[in-house]
Amino acid sequence: MTVRAERGSIAAEFAVVLPAVLLVLVLCVGAASVSLQRIEVQSAASAASRILARGDGLGAATGAVGRLAPGARLAAARDGDFVCATVASTARFVAARTAGVRLTGRACALSGDEVS
């Protein structure tokens, strides 16, 4: 084969490989985004359980969840001497949201009004 016959082959190979490389890159960035959002949800659950354990009320806990994990929902329950908060959210990354990925964080704190 001559150099003339191979002319343009690099551009053709690049055009074939580029979409696959971009797809992998976008999925990696999306996975990192979902991981960070999972940390936000868990942090919001921890903060909400501490707020509820202090007796500050559901409104204060809901406000903290709204600041730490925008769009997340809070559910609170008592478990013996503990106050537990569960924060749930859907993934913000489009591909994960389309797949129905839900993120949940749960945390419990010892209730301040039960301790003598």
UniProtKB/TrEMBL annotation:
<feature type="transmembrane region" description="Helical">
    <location>
        <begin position="12"/>
        <end position="36"/>
    </location>
</feature>
<dbReference type="Pfam" id="PF07811">
    <property type="entry name" value="TadE"/>
</dbReference>
<feature type="domain" description="TadE-like">
    <location>
        <begin position="8"/>
        <end position="50"/>
    </location>
</feature>
<keyword id="KW-1133">Transmembrane helix</keyword>
<protein>
    <recommendedName>
        <fullName>TadE-like domain-containing protein</fullName>
    </recommendedName>
</protein>
<keyword id="KW-0472">Membrane</keyword>
<dbReference type="InterPro" id="IPR049790">
    <property type="entry name" value="Rv3655c/TadE"/>
</dbReference>
<dbReference type="InterPro" id="IPR012495">
    <property type="entry name" value="TadE-like_dom"/>
</dbReference>
<keyword id="KW-0812">Transmembrane</keyword>
